[in-house]
Structures are given as structure tokens and as C-alpha cells.
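User: quick one, sequence for these C-alpha cells?
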């Protein structure tokens, strides 16, 4: 233990190596997953990626829904280094606008983000409480109710 100065320094060194091993154990591809309603709307996401030579995969989600691609090859290998979702892949249904992705699919995307440290960008999204955003209508009605 004398080499490390103190038992605490030794524990800190071991902890550092363990953390580094955990970070190195998980890897992700540089491919960006783009979820869009159609190829025309997907172009707004991938045109910038093309300019920099960043690989991407477009998955179009029709109003009836679709399966997500395989997000990870194993517990330590992710297939996507980033996720872009355009317009929440939402459509107008008889009861309003909703995403064609199910709650379980959104959770699958969130879990993947957490497991692999991957970022998701949601473009052209209606502001909701989920993101700490409120519409002017909601703000004015809550101010009136005070």
C-alpha cells in the first residue's frame, strides 16, 4: 500500500480502473437513427449528416405504426450513436394528434439512451409538459386561475 500513499488512494485508483473498464465495455456505432413519417421529412435530418459523411439509417413510421430496428447487437454493443425523431412521427387520428410509436417503443428508445449514453434529438415537436414546455394558452389559463 505504501506505493499508493494511502488505502484511500488505492481504492480511488481501483475505482478509476473499474469505471474506465465499464465505459470501454460499451460501444456504439457512429450511425445515426432517423425516425420520420416519410422520406421527404427525413431529408431535413440527413442532409446535414451527408455533408459531413456521417452514416445514418432512415426508418419511416407509417400511421399504423412499425417495429423499431434492432437498437443493440448485445448488452455492450449499440447499433446507433444518435437518434433523431422528426415531428414525433405523429399523425392526426380521430381523437387528435399522436405519435405512431407506442409508449413501449418510446421507453425502448429511452432505455437505449440510458444504457449506451446516446443522445436523442426531437425536431418539430409540439411543446408539452414532458419537456418542461407550456403553450401560451396553458400559461394564460393557469394565470387566470390564480
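Assistant:
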Amino acid at each position: 500500500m505504501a506505493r499508493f500513499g494511502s488505502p484511500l488512494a488505492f481504492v480511488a485508483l481501483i475505482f478509476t480502473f473499474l469505471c474506465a473498464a465499464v465505459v470501454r465495455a460499451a460501444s456504439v456505432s457512429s450511425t445515426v437513427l432517423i425516425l420520420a413519417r416519410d422520406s421527404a421529412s427525413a431529408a431535413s435530418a440527413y442532409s446535414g449528416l451527408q455533408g459531413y459523411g456521417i452514416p445514418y439509417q432512415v426508418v419511416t413510421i407509417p400511421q399504423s405504426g412499425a417495429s423499431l430496428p434492432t437498437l443493440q447487437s448485445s448488452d455492450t454493443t449499440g447499433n446507433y450513436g444518435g437518434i433523431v425523431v422528426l415531428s414525433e412521427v405523429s399523425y392526426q387520428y380521430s381523437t387528435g394528434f399522436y405519435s405512431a410509436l407506442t409508449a413501449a417503443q418510446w421507453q425502448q428508445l429511452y432505455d437505449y439512451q440510458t444504457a449506451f449514453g446516446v443522445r436523442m434529438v426531437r425536431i418539430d415537436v409540439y411543446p408539452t409538459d414532458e419537456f418542461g414546455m407550456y403553450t401560451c394558452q396553458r400559461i394564460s389559463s393557469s394565470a387566470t386561475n390564480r
